Amino acid sequence: MATIHDVAKKAKVSVTTVSRVLNNRGYISEATRTKVFKAMEQLHYQPNEIARSLLRKQSNVIGLIIPNVSHPFFSELANYVENYAYEKGFKMLLCNSQLDPVKEKDYIEMLKRNRVDGIIMGSHTLQVEEYINLSSPIVTIDRQISTEIPYISSDNYMGGSLAAKLLLAKGCMKTAHICGNLELQLLANQRTTAFKSVMNENGVEPIIVQTDMDVFNQIQYAQMIRQLFEDHPDIDGVFATSDIIAAFAVKECAAVGKRIPDDVKIIGYDDINAASWMMPAITTIKQPISQMALTAVDLILKQMNEEEFHLENIHPVSLVERATT
Question: Which residues make Cβ contacts (< 8 Å) with residue 104, sequence separation at least 6?
Fold first, then answer.
């Protein structure tokens, strides 16, 4: 296996010059740079990335911890984070925690061992101290775990308010809201708070249905919604806290013979790509997933470079009306 000394000998330059080319440091003429790269190619030389990262004290790797890689919101988020990180010269390590604290801790230890330059957190099951004590820059998504760690979210309160106002404008008076477990203390809980507040202001008391603690377990969605329609057959409006749950509501309406939007109007949240593909296409509150991912990468880089940054990063939402309302 070729070494840096072999490359220097073949290119007829010093080892220091080869090192400068590899680390893009100091002035190197284009002719010399070309000679070094040509020698590397001919010798099939692969630089030792671990050694280089120790030398630079930078790995050019960002870790992303998400709770469920199969969930469309998080898969789209991961796609954008990877893309923006790559554009900035970074690679991404994807960690799928599945809301398991043991697995999440293992992933954090792995990211520390790999000396990642920052961690974007879309999953949080551990004590806050586990993150505060990390030396790497951290950004959290849709959760605020400390006054020292920057976080990103959509304007959840505005999202819940927009959904309530649309259902009211459509004449819905027996509404239900299906959400994640409110004990998890996520910023997404503000969707529920706003929805209830606007409904109450208009004399409507919505039915609130929560998932269990495993909010991404889709098996429970159909059971919850089926029970909801059995207990309250006169429901005429549903606001789901995700497009996936909204899609299950559409499916259950078809199963019990309820017409959409004539009998029941349904609103989701996120505006994942699939929301527009489904039949009927789902009305939803759009989170700017692409912009949230860009902000996450940008916040890591600002912390790395000791630049000023905002702790609170709230992105506006918008209503996208389709066939379910």
Answer: 65, 95, 97, 123, 124, 125, 126
**Distances, alpha carbon 141 to alpha carbons 150, 164, 181, 291, in Å:** 9, 24, 17, 12
Per-residue pLDDT of 268-281, as tens digits, reads 999 999 999 999 99
244 to 58, 234, 270: CA distances (angstroms) = 39, 23, 9
Distance of alpha carbon 282 from alpha carbon 284, whole angstroms: 6
Confirm if 178 and 245 have CB atoms less than 8 A apart: yes
CA dist., res. 225 & res. 235, Å (int)? 11
Q: Range with the lowest mean pLDDT among 68-82, 205-219, 228-242?
A: 205-219
Residue 176, classed as helix, strand or coil, is strand
The correct CATH number of 4-47 out of 1.20.1530.20, 3.40.190.10, 2.40.10.340, 1.10.260.40 is 1.10.260.40
Could you say which DSSP state residue 182 is in?
G
Residue 34 phi, psi (nearest 5): -65, -40
CATH architecture of 61-153+289-315: 3-Layer(aba) Sandwich (3.40)
Strand partners, 40: none
* CATH class of this structure's domain 156-287: alpha beta
Comparing 238 with 71, the larger pLDDT belongs to 238
**Predicted confidence (pLDDT) per residue in 23-54, tens digit:** 666 778 888 888 888 888 888 887 765 555 54
The mean pLDDT of the chain is 89
Q: Which amino acid is at 259?
A: R
Q: What is the pLDDT of residue 240?
A: 97
The sign of the torsion formed by the CA atoms of 67, 73, 76, 80 equals: negative
In the chain, domain spans: 4-47, 61-153+289-315, 156-287
Question: pTM (2 decimals)?
Answer: 0.82
Q: Which of 184, 172, 231, 236 lies closest to 211, judged by CA?
A: 184
Angle between the N-to-C axes of helices 30-43 and 4-11, in degrees from 0 to 180, rounded to the nearest 10: 120
